[in-house]
Fold this sequence. Notes:
The complex is a heterodimer.
Chain A: H1 2-11, H2 17-43, H3 47-70, E1 72-74, H4 79-93, E2 97-102, E3 107-109, H5 110-135, E4 140-148, E5 152-159, H6 166-173, H7 185-194, H8 201-214, E6 217-223, E7 227-235, E8 240-248, E9 251-256, E10 260-265, E11 271-274, E12 277-282, E13 285-291, H9 292-295, E14 306-312, E15 315-321, E16 323-331, E17 333-334, E18 345-350, E19 356-360, H10 362-368
Chain B: E1 2-8, E2 11-16, E3 20-25, E4 39-45, E5 48-54, H1 55-58, E6 70-76, E7 79-85, E8 87-93, E9 99-103, E10 108-113, E11 116-121, H2 123-127
Amino acid sequence: MEQSISNDFSEISSVNKKNLDQLLSLVEELVINKVRIEKMKNEVSDNSHGKILDQELRIISEIQASIKKVRLIKIKTLTNSLEDLVNKCNTKNKINVNFILRGQETEIENTLIIYIHNILNYLIKDICENEFIASKNDTNHIEVTTYSDGKNFTTVIESNGKGFNYEATCDKLNKKSLNLVSFDEDEVKKFLDIIHFTNNVENLLKLRLDLIYLDGSIKFESIVNEFRRITIVIPITSSIMQGLLVTIGNQIFALPLDFIETIINENTVKTKKSKNIEMIIYMDHIIQLVRLSELLNIETVFEPSCIIIVNANNKRAALLVDSLLDQTDMVIKPKHSIMTDIREIKGSTILGDGLVTLVLDIPSILKEI
Amino acid sequence: MQILTFLIENEPFALDITLVDTIQNKMPITPVPNSKKYVIGLISNRGNVIPVINTSLMLDADTTDNIYEKFIIINLGNEKLALAVNEIDDVLEIEEKDIENINKDEDFSIVNINSNVITFLTYKQLQKI
């Protein structure tokens, strides 16, 4: 027993978070340069140079892989803060809530843990303040279970109390299951209203938007007078995504590949106009045509030649761009606070040539048209 | 305290040197569609994407299509901003009492150095961006 304790200690060394962050941003810089080195490698004809560059690239990949593990933090770190919150709710509302956090050894990424903490914070608060006060049970419990299978990180928040009628709610909303990600905004509001979960509409809407991007889910389940269960699945994606580079006017933009259904030549389809809305007919579907140059207020130099059909949230649109350039790996950097009100743009990425390229926010563009 | 002085369209400006992260030479800027007027675009610096601010527009100064030569990258809280300037002038040592706040409402400050009046950009003013 003693032996194992001392072993545990020797495996852990403490690092200043600031130093770690610095290291991480340096690695990110290295990854961005990797694209540049790859480009150089293709241009170099000399074999010996190519060999060295190959080695460099391999080392960068290895650093990238091992730094990912450094970022992981155990869910255990949230225990104190969440227990505190429940205790505060208990004294404030004179209720008795037992809180259990399972899966404390689950490891997730540094940035995700703050995110999860926020979600749990407002959900627990809401359950305590709405559900438990109303139900007036002697004993209430909230059980949070977290687990990760390497691809998805799942959080299950289960509580007793009144709950709601699952089938009836599904019927009312005309849905097979209650997954907020598959709802549109009004449906989410309506649903949260039905189950009296109205304190956190904004937060849940924001979470839903994030999860549309990441392809996750927020599911509600319940049996009346037994339990209410919220399951949040967040896919663990690397921040590296595949993007399609297009030109609009004389500027380059990137579109996340995940949202792209097909790409067609502008000449092969007929456009139709009705009430100033342009449409195309593609494989028996009528799809609204969006001229990205108009949406982004960019002057076009050439006649647009490509139509990209995108799909998010079961909504389609045909985006008209000047030309296609390339497909590339990209690290999406979040928007600076100065740009938060520009809805068409998700973030930016630095390409091999060192230039900043803007990444378009497809779900948000689809929502606006 | 030490201040960094610089020129925007021949007008002298200054800011607290502890805010300054790096100074970078001119590089290609990526314009941001539908952005605020004083945002010229984005540049990359050491793996970060940083918005470039047209400092003269922000200060309601007259502006023409001026040619920027340098970017002063500053730290504001957790984020970084790049101020586009024409020329870096000097680093000066001043006393904190030399900074005069002449318009409290708009938080507009100046420094008087050898009877040269320099507009001093305060942290508060920069944060408003």
